[in-house]
Design a protein that fits this description.
The protein has helices spanning about 5, 10-35, 40-60, 65-105, 125-160, 165-180, 185-195, 205-240, 245-255, 260-275, 280-305, 310-325, 330-355, 365-370. It is mostly helical and about 375 residues long.
């Protein structure tokens, strides 16, 4: 077969090069124009895919009225963001700024334990000694490391400063997702047609896998972490715990990273039992423990058994997404990387199956079975 250069004359080669250069320029220019809106568009698509089963159920319940169902879901989402999420978010921003300021100048300290800690049964003496040592040594260490911690503090202040813009992006994304619900079937058909030009024989399977991954991560990781952070933050707020919003934000981050809320909840509960009355401490404990343990029960139910994305991929998605897109990237980063990971795994395993069964189309397994029923 002759090459393209053999088929074209010198003048045709120049024209082809000019056309390709213009096409590349238009593509790059288009990307520059839409780049500020990429996080918003990505988050709106994630919301639409994650909540589409709820939208379909509500639409049928209302007598096949998709526009009304989309409006109700959008208003509920906006109420959650404008209401408790903003309430706790402002507290988290203020706490983050205060923490960054103390970290930068080396004045961050752990308060010394109360003398009553020694009287706690079994662990009182050991806990008092460990706590007292930590409060003394940490202060000295931070004063020595203060010049090196200033860049970290600056990044934290930048994250806190972008919270207002991030909230606005969330509001726009939620509103845009409301318009995507009724157009869901047409968008799926267009996406399938696009994928068929890239992976013709697996476009439907890969599209279904991408949707399942988005729903699993958005509902089972992001959704549960956000809900857990909100509930724990509200409990701490009513218990008059200082920096309740910051603690709620930390619980959410740890939930997304699959670490768990115990790192935050246990020290806070110890502080509450030391400083609050017995009745308040008991009520807060009875409320906060189920909320902190709920993710262990809900995640297997919501995520099912199909998602195999490693925790490292989620972690890189959280860090990279936050550095690239701020507070919005904190949520869309792990979802995008999880989708890419699952599609790559499916692609590789599908190729392995094809290589293992050459020429035998009847025995070729479906991609959904290859990736564990996703």
């Amino acid at each position: 077969m002759r090459t393209i250069r053999q088929l074209l004359s010198g003048e045709d080669e120049i024209q082809l090069a000019v056309r390709l250069a213009l096409l590349a320029l238009l593509i790059y220019w288009s990307f520059v124009v839409i780049r500020p809106f990429v996080p918003i568009l990505a988050w709106s698509v994630v919301l639409a895919v994650a909540l589409y089963p709820l939208f379909g159920w509500l639409s049928r319940l209302l007598g096949d009225r998709p526009k009304l169902a989309a409006t109700i879901i959008t208003l509920v989402n906006l109420a959650i963001i404008i209401g408790p999420a903003t309430w706790l978010g402002l507290g988290a921003v203020e706490g983050l700024r205060s923490f960054a300021a103390h970290l930068g100048d080396g004045t961050l300290v752990i308060p010394a334990p109360a003398a009553s800690v020694k009287d706690w049964p079994i662990v009182g003496a050991q806990l008092f000694a460990l706590w007292d040592q930590a409060s003394t040594n940490l202060s000295a260490a931070l004063r020595a490391l203060a010049p090196h911690l200033k860049p970290v503090a600056g990044s934290m202040l930048g994250l806190a400063g972008g919270a207002g813009l991030g909230t606005l992006k969330f509001l726009v994304a939620v509103t845009l997702a409301g318009f995507l619900f009724p157009a869901g079937p047409r968008l799926v058909a267009a996406s399938r047609s696009f994928l068929s030009r890239i992976v013709a024989d697996r476009s439907t399977d890969f599209l279904a896998l991408a949707g399942a991954t988005i729903r699993s991560v958005a509902q089972g990781v992001i959704g549960i972490a956000v809900a857990q952070g909100l509930v724990i933050g509200i409990i701490l707020k009513f218990a008059d715990v200082p920096r309740a919003g910051l603690f709620a934000f930390a619980v959410m981050i740890l939930g997304i990273l699959q670490i768990g809320s115990a790192v935050i909840v246990i020290p806070v509960l110890i502080w509450i039992w030391m400083t609050k009355s017995f009745a308040v401490a008991l009520i807060v404990t009875l409320c906060i423990l189920p909320a902190s343990l709920a993710d262990n029960v809900l995640k297997p139910i919501v995520m099912g058994r199909g998602l195999t994305t490693p925790a490292l991929v989620i972690f890189v998605g959280v860090i990279g997404g936050t550095l690239a897109h701020g507070i919005v990237g904190l949520f869309i980063g792990p979802i995008i990387l999880a989708v890419v990971w699952e599609l790559l795994v499916a692609w590789v395993r599908d190729d392995e199956v094809k290589a293992a069964t050459p020429g035998d189309e009847g025995d070729r397994r479906d991609i959904s079975a290859v990736v564990g029923g996703t």
